[in-house]
Design brief:
With about 450 residues, the protein is mainly alpha-helical. The strands form two sheets. A two-stranded antiparallel ribbon has the order 1-3. It has a two-stranded antiparallel sheet with strand order 2-4. α7 packs antiparallel against α8 and α8 packs antiparallel against α9. The relative contact order is 0.13.
Length: about 450
């Protein structure tokens, strides 16, 4: 193919030269990376590429949330992908294609963002609002590392996250401009990786505007993600403060219980803080993977009976998570086999649940119960009467499972709550996904595999 491309480029140059001998044609097959994104339009295009990367089928297009719920108890494997079976059975090999492709895709996205940051710092275009662009890029990068760390990082001997001795990620903060920049770097500690994530997300909160256009990270999206990061690290006071800021200042409102399904069938509702935008050119594979072949899908995954059983009979979320009419046993969070569904990264309901959990861990039982009951009331349920911190956290865990199913939370929550043994996981190292075999091998061991794999 390269020969044909070169031929047509050469032919084009020849024809132009035959008409005007004074025209000098610059090579267009490659450019100097250090002279890349120079103008505002260049940088805007580069940022668009960062957002487009999120739609990859190896990422938010299906595998990010599917692997999360397959590893937990929300999804069953009903298809033919052996790599999905490994995740379901907690017997993942480092050569697993889905695990490898997720890692590779997210790091590709990180490199794109690093190139944006590099270019913004070098641009002389006065139209570029440098602080705002840097804030957006850093928030974006923090989000990417957060997603990777939840899968691949942690301590193999201690449940949860942010524990002493936890394994982190290779923190690549410079763009790939020359061959030397592709050199492997070792994994940082989990603690240092969390510091980096929180620093990047905090920069987004400080520098982003409250509104930043549909489908893009804004101040409150960055702060919602920061609240999530504080929750994972057990920083209860900051988790509560960040969630409160989003709840009280972001301008978002919960969709009514009667219209709960529209959170997912209508794009960018009043509850949505940040959604990844899918369309016919960038298709969401969620419905295609869950719907049977008779309905235009491939029937690879399906909601579990236990998820359906976990929801109370009158729960308005129950029929959205698990259909009992045709198409049977599907989720209504992804309904477009053509791939037009958006992926909801973060929404207001999660902020109430984060604040409820943070308050419970600070012995603010009244405040925690109030937040929990906001979510239960919206779901058409009776008020919870949980009276202790432990009872509240148990109730919050249940609400998170039902409220946030198929949105990329359950496996990470089971790790946080030290409950992966209830899923049949008996080996501590399997709380972490393995570093891809190719990464370890190609790095010559610089990137260390998680012990046990």
């Amino acid at each position: 193919m390269k020969k044909y491309i070169f031929y047509f480029l050469f032919t084009g140059v020849f024809l132009v030269s035959s008409c005007t001998s004074n025209i000098e044609v610059q090579p267009i097959a490659q450019i100097d990376a250090s002279a890349g994104y120079q103008t505002k339009s260049d940088i805007d295009a580069a940022l668009t590429g960062c957002y487009n990367e999120l739609t990859n089928a190896n990422y938010n297009g299906i595998r990010y949330w599917a692997l999360c719920d397959l590893a937990a108890d929300n999804l069953n494997w009903t298809g033919t992908f052996g790599d999905f079976a490994e995740v379901l059975n907690h017997q993942i090999f480092p050569q697993n294609a889905s695990v490898t492709n997720l890692w590779t895709t997210v790091y590709d996205g990180i490199n794109r963002v690093n190139n944006v940051i590099y270019s913004v710092n070098k641009t002389s275009d006065k139209a570029v609002n440098v602080p705002a662009y840097l804030a957006e890029a850093q928030a974006f990068r923090g989000f990417q590392y957060f997603n990777l760390l939840r899968f691949y990082g942690g301590n193999i001997n201690t449940p949860g996250y942010n524990q002493a001795g936890g394994l982190g990620l290779p923190l690549k903060i410079a763009p790939t401009l020359v061959i030397a920049d592709t050199a492997s770097i070792p994994r940082s500690s989990e603690a240092d990786t969390w510091k980096f994530i929180i620093s990047d997300l905090s920069a987004g909160v400080a520098g982003l505007p409250a509104k930043n256009g549909t489908g893009k990270i804004n101040k409150y999206a960055a702060e919602a993600l920061l609240a999530r990061a504080y929750l994972y690290t057990g920083d209860w006071a900051n988790a509560e403060a960040a969630a409160t800021d989003v709840i009280t200042k972001g301008g978002y409102t919960l969709v009514s219980g009667a219209n709960y399904s529209t959170i997912f069938t209508v794009k960018n509702t009043s509850e949505s803080i940040w959604e990844i935008q899918f369309d016919s050119q960038n298709a969401n594979q969620g419905a295609f993977f869950t719907y049977a072949t008779a309905n235009g899908g491939r029937g690879e995954i399906t909601p579990t009976i236990s998820l359906n059983a976990a929801a109370e009979a009158s729960d308005l979320r129950k029929p959205v998570n698990y259909t009992t009419t045709a198409p049977l046993n599907k989720t209504l969070k992804y309904t477009s086999v053509a791939g037009l569904d958006n992926f909801v990264v973060v929404r207001l309901a999660e902020m109430y649940l984060i604040r409820a959990e943070a308050r419970a861990n600070q012995s603010n039982l009244v405040g925690s119960l109030a937040d929990l009951n906001i979510i239960r009331t919206r779901a058409g349920l009776t008020l919870s009467v949980a009276a202790t911190s432990d009872d509240l956290i148990t109730a919050i865990e249940k609400e998170r499972r039902i409220e946030l199913a198929f949105e990329g939370h359950r496996w990470f929550d089971m790790r946080r709550y030290n409950k992966i043994s209830t899923l049949g996981v008996t080996q501590g190292f399997r709380a972490l996904f393995p570093i891809p075999f190719s990464e370890v091998t190609n790095s010559g061991g610089i990137i260390a595999q998680t012990p046990g794999y």
